[in-house]
Fold these 2 entries.
Entry 1:
Amino acid sequence: MKRTVSIQDISCFGRCSLTVALPTLSAMGIETAILPTAILSTHTAGFQGFTFCDLTDEMDKIASHWQKEGITFDSIGTGYLGSDEQIATVLSFFETFGKEALIFVDPVMADHGKLYPAFSEDFPQKMARLCEKADVIVPNLTEAAFLLGEPFVGSDYDEGYIHALLKRLHARFGTRLSIVTGVTYQKDKQGAVAYDGENDCFYEYFGENLPVSFHGTGDVFSSSLCGALTLGMDTTAALKVAVDYTIDSIRATMGVEDIYWYGVNFEKGLNALSEVSRRFTEQ
Ligand code: PXL
């Protein structure tokens, strides 16, 4: 059985970060440890007056205990970080636990051309330091622009732009696999495009582009993609698993988005995700 650790916040209500990653990775048959970065009453996108408890000091203590116990991981996945200071904590975690593990960094910090409210303008440069240590990075198009210090192009791009962007990410961060999410070349299709810099190969997978936008879809995508790569799926198969699961979650939320505006119904797709993972593991 594979073992992963997911490093991100607990938003107690709101279907994102650890409340998505933990059930998703467990359903894929992966033993999942968590290293919470902060506890919030809700996520920060749309709720007012949320509470926030920073866990940076606790993270170091948890990591030291794990080190004493000789605990190891097949993969380390990071998501939303509670504060700038945590970059150093996570870098040191990579040093200690990352030598044999797949390091998967989702540089969660921005969407639709804007940084999330909790982050300062220099946060992207700090997040870039984590990306330099990663095997896999999965920015959306806004995060890719912030990481490279480039303007955000909105929806005005084509395949040539995406491929060149991926090559620039690879050149800047040296990641084995750079993946951009939320790509639409044609109006009716949405998906992810990957660049394997070592073999100079592109991979892509697209599903239906549903005419809605929900919070938390990035976390649904990245946790299932991290899971699929941890299980050992190849890039194309892993992209398919993650894109299909994300689109299924969006579809399950359509029609009830007034009630569930704070995150998508990923629970509906958990059985299917579990089945795909089981079939792969048993083959
Ligand atoms: O879904 C990303 C995310 C995770 N955690 C918190 C957030 C967000 C996005 O806004 O606010 C606390």
Entry 2:
Amino acid sequence: MKRFIWRTMAVLVVVGGLALVVACQPSGGEGGGGEPQLASELHLYNWSEYIDPDVLTMFEDEFGVHVVEDTFASNEELLAKLQAGAAGYDVIVPSDYMVEIMIEEGLLAELDVDNLPNISNLDPLFANPPYDPGLVHCVPYLWGTTGIGYNTDVFDEPPDSWAYLFDPELASQYAGQMTMLNDERESIGAALKYLGYSLNSTNEEELMQARDLLIQQKQWVYAYDSEQYEDLLSADETVIAHGWSGDFFMAAEEDERIWYVIPREGGTVWADNLCIPTSAASKYTAEVFINFLLRPDISAMNSNFTWYASPNAAAAEFVDPEVLDEPAIYPPPEVMANLEWIEDVGDSTPLYSRIWTEVKAAGEQ
Ligand code: SPD
């Protein structure tokens, strides 16, 4: 009987012909009537090296909640995990276009703003994104750009064009010493940009050209990688890499030869977001965690650690000047105007996935 009480149970309450299901959990968990309680653990599913470990310790000390972090390498990997029914995550960090896809698929819970007073710290520019109008499901966490990282000892001038990765004359000079993101939207997007098209193209002819370009480029690619490409640069395995701004600046902290440039043809601008899956076990605890991450000092710690820009206006006074004043982290308006957001391409998504599969399989036995 005791075991029964401690186990989560559903109580059916019939009031005037209405059936209401109330979930009860052991104390220390969430749910039930009355004051919400914090769970003892929170499961965070995040990009790699994307939160200051001290922030996690501070949250654990302040709230007595142990944070278990697991990492993913692409939005598509995150989506596949949730679609497959993974129910173990309380907070996930999808990018803009993926938020839209996940909302459409019913994978994201609506946030209870009463638990998120620190949302008022956000810059109004980030308060109404087209992929989640009114921030109903997610709050923006960090934002950045996608471009080219390189070893400054090898390049006299910054490789400020996608041609360094795709033009046969230029790219062949770095054969076996370049990496591309293992990310279908980003890598196909880079090829589309080099060709002068939108990185959200749904034109089959343009997409086939991008596929052929990526297949041609494959002979010079050392690896498709989204988690260690900056370490490969530092280890002199590579000299040039397609990747995300902050990852290169983080590596540059340890190795001053590394730097980053946004290609003059334009690249991607993106925002990653804190969201709660509908399958989360501890929604209230997840909201308390997200609210903690929205605190100005905490938001700044994550920005300083990751070298990504913060959408939190109140955090600016705590962000290190090297981060805040770096034009490749906070690009000036004329550079921003040349960048594109990745959008949900709807019915063309399977075509992007097919192209990526073909690129990855090309030349393999
Ligand atoms: N190491 C953390 C990198 C986070 C990058 N997220 C960017 C996704 C853009 N499509």
